[in-house]
Specification:
The protein has helices at 20-23, 27-31, 51-67, 80-92, 110-123, 137-145, 163-168, 194-205, and strands at 10-14, 37-41, 71-75, 96-103, 127-133, 153-158. By secondary structure, it is an alpha/beta fold. A six-stranded parallel β-sheet has the order 1-2-3-4-5-6.
Length: 207
């Protein structure tokens, strides 16, 4: 993975998708000291439930923060102790905290989305991320509409109809968007390859 990370670039590191051997030893520290702006993300495992798995996830994320992660992704519904420990580590190491909410089935109503944003900020987020399945064009419009006046909000559309959200969000105030590597597997439905996304955004800016 380290060979794909270039100094100065912005990358999300999905720690939950690495092999256990890559999470052990000094691998995490070496990865997060490459000079790139890295988002440390470790999604809960559905196949390894329980306190032991949660404790390991917390420990790995704390190591990533201590090694220089620029951002740490914390789920909105994470256990209180997990969230508070990561927020404390992030503050200590000047790492920005992203409180994230994912809905893989639908895009909630506007008022529900506003409530999610407010909850994330109340929890201590530097940035709030909302990623929702887009089942109709109006879902994408509702997500993009959240960016009105917001500079600390990331919105992501999942699924084929969500691609327009990924393209338009950074043009409308979202700090950044998410894309898949130019090679390798996609990590979320509706992702666009980084090179393709960059070309599309540059063409729009040039109109």
């Amino acid at each position: 993975m380290m060979e794909a990370v270039e100094p100065g670039g912005l990358y999300e590191i999905r720690l939950d998708m690495l092999n256990p051997s890559e999470l052990a030893g000094a691998g995490i520290e070496a990865l997060f000291k490459t000079g790139a702006r890295l988002i440390a993300t470790f999604r809960p495992s559905l196949s390894i439930p329980g306190a032991a798995a949660e404790g390991n996830r917390l420990a790995v994320l704390q190591r990533a923060i201590g090694a220089g992660a620029a951002y740490v992704d914390i789920e909105l519904d994470a256990p209180d102790a997990h969230r508070k420990a990561l927020l404390a580590a992030a503050q200590k190491h000047a790492c920005l905290a992203i409180i994230s909410h994912h809905d893989y089935e639908q895009t909630p109503a506007h008022d529900a989305l506003i409530g999610i944003i407010e909850r994330g900020k109340d929890m201590g987020a530097n940035l709030v991320k909302i990623a929702c399945q887009v089942n109709a064009p109006e879902d994408g419009a509702r997500l993009l509409g959240l960016l009105d006046g917001q500079t600390d909000l990331i919105v992501v559309g999942m699924g084929p109809l969500g691609r327009i959200v990924r393209i338009a969000a950074p043009l409308l105030g979202s700090p950044f968007t998410f894309a898949a590597p130019d090679e390798g597997p996609l990590t979320a439905p509706g992702q666009i390859r980084a090179g393709e996304l960059e070309q599309v955004i540059q063409r729009i800016k040039g109109l």
